[in-house]
Amino acid sequence: MPSSSHPEVTSTTSLSPGRLLWSLMRGYRLLYGLAILALLIHTAVGYLVPLVASGTIDYALSGETVENSLPARAIQLLGGEAVVRDSLWRPALAIVLLTMFGGLFHYLKGHLSALASDGIARRLKDRLFDHLQRLPSAYHDKADSGDTIQRCTSDVETLRLALASQVVDVGNALLLLLTAIPLMIFLDGRMTVASFVLLGPIIFFGFFFFARVRDTFQQVDEAEGKVTRVVQENLTGLRVVRAFARQEFEIGKFAGPNQLYRDRQLRLLRILAYYWSISDLIVLLQQGIVLLVGIHFISTGTLTVGTLFAFMMFLNLLLWPVRQMGRTLTDLGKSVVALTRVGQILSEAGESAPAAPKTPLGAPKGRIEVRDLVFAHAEGHAAINGISFTVEPGETLAILGPSGAGKSTLMHLLLRLYDYQEGTVRLDGLELREADRRWVRAQFSVVMQEPFLYSKTIGENIRLGRTSAEPRDVLSAARMAHIDETIQTFPQGYETLVGERGITLSGGQRQRVALARALLREAPVLLLDDALSAVDAETEATILEALRQRHGKRTTLVIAHRLSTLAHADQIIVLDAGRILQQGTHADLVRQDGLYRRLWEIQNAVA
Q1: Do residues 441 and 484 make contact, with C-beta atoms less than 8 angstroms apart?
Q2: What is the CATH superfamily name and number for domain 368-606?
Q3: Where exactly are the structural domains of the chain?
Q4: One-character DSSP codes across 302-321
Q5: pLDDT by residue (tens digit) across 483-531?
Q6: pTM (2 decimals)?
Q7: Parallel, antiparallel, or unpaired for β 396-400 and 571-576?
Q8: CATH, domain range 22-346
Q9: Which residues are within 8 A (CB) of 236 and not within 5 positions of it... i.e. 6 or more apart?
């Protein structure tokens, strides 16, 4: 199982479902071995009961004796024909004790396999969650969150159920079959042939439905994933849906995937209904054949009643697991599909890393140097196209530009959420592509364009910036972000729970809580990606004044559209289409004819 302290994952070898399962079973194989041992004992005891019953009928009650007969030997172990005939409680007690003994090992078989399967499912969920944290942002940009949740929950549960019972059930059926054949031949070869007339068709029938249901289950699983995705999107955007009165539209949008899931589920149930009804018919025919053949041989004096009784009990022991094996194989088909879908996530390559990640010596300073940086998304569109700039430790760099200019993309490249194709980015003299990602990200405090808050208390959300922070440090960061006074108005203060994604707070409140979280971290570099867009002008001015008092202590990169936010920066760059159009201080850019000056004039005129 991957450890949470694993430095970086560069790639994951694509494993077949079998090899993946075998690797997941590491540490639990002994439990499965003990479960198989319990299964062997349970099977052996299961065959002793018919032998005792057969011997009682033939030798204790009728007085017949057949040398080297297994039922006769069972009676001899109970004291012989005469003793058993006078004490019929002995075979009855033996049957009860054998049944209880077999039941005990049947329980142990199930208990041990359940322990192993639960452990494997837990390990697989841990491994999936760990791997998802390490997959590159490009993967998450394209991944369907509803389908991913489906794979990490429903598919893992399908696999757990298969490992808990179905794998052992297949072993049970095969073991019963392999043990029964020599035992039944030893009793009577003719009846053995009669007992296996329809066994082949039953097994073939099960395999046929296994192939059919495997494909159908995959379709059902995919349809369920679509339903999950629609529900998740609707709940996430519930306020938007209500604001635009789109409830009816959303209900209609949900009806399509829901109908598809229902249709595919019904198709799966029809296939299973056909299987059970037809297999029931074949099983009854097989029992009828054995009964008719046995009665014929009894009438000719070549077969005893006890032997026919033993064969009927053996047949009951055999037919149910063999018949059930068809259903077990269908469920195994589901688990193969589930394991394949899970394996597709695990086979995705993680974030790339150099062979020997580096970290600089000495205390971090926060100097950023960018030269000829080029980055294009997978679609081929260049988001950053040859930009260069330098930010000295403690300086503030402001970034301005229209939507799509590459501002947020630049922030993402600094955090190594994406890897750039050309150019260099150096942090404290170290090239980011040669650095350990964890070290790089530890040098930044970030407030994203869309701040994310967990469904925790306000204090816990702020403390995520530094979990070991003292209450006074949390209070100081909140005051600097101008959110402390607002928090104090809440009945529970810092212990106030915020809803999922912080939905119970306003946009400005969420931004200020996220800013407090970033300030509490006290990293060498502070990244503010349009972090004050939802804050009113007066509050913004207060926050900016607090940030200016930190000047020289932390390197700061600010993305904003209000020029008042940028005016006091040490340098400003104006981006458009991934290129730097202008670069300088506020005073320099106001004097130049260009985008910055036009925006300054427009915003001053509006003000």
Answers
A1: no
A2: P-loop containing nucleotide triphosphate hydrolases (3.40.50.300)
A3: 22-346, 368-606
A4: SS-HHHHHHHHHHHHHHHHH
A5: 888 888 888 888 888 877 667 787 788 888 888 898 888 889 988 888 7
A6: 0.69
A7: parallel
A8: 1.20.1560.10
A9: 501
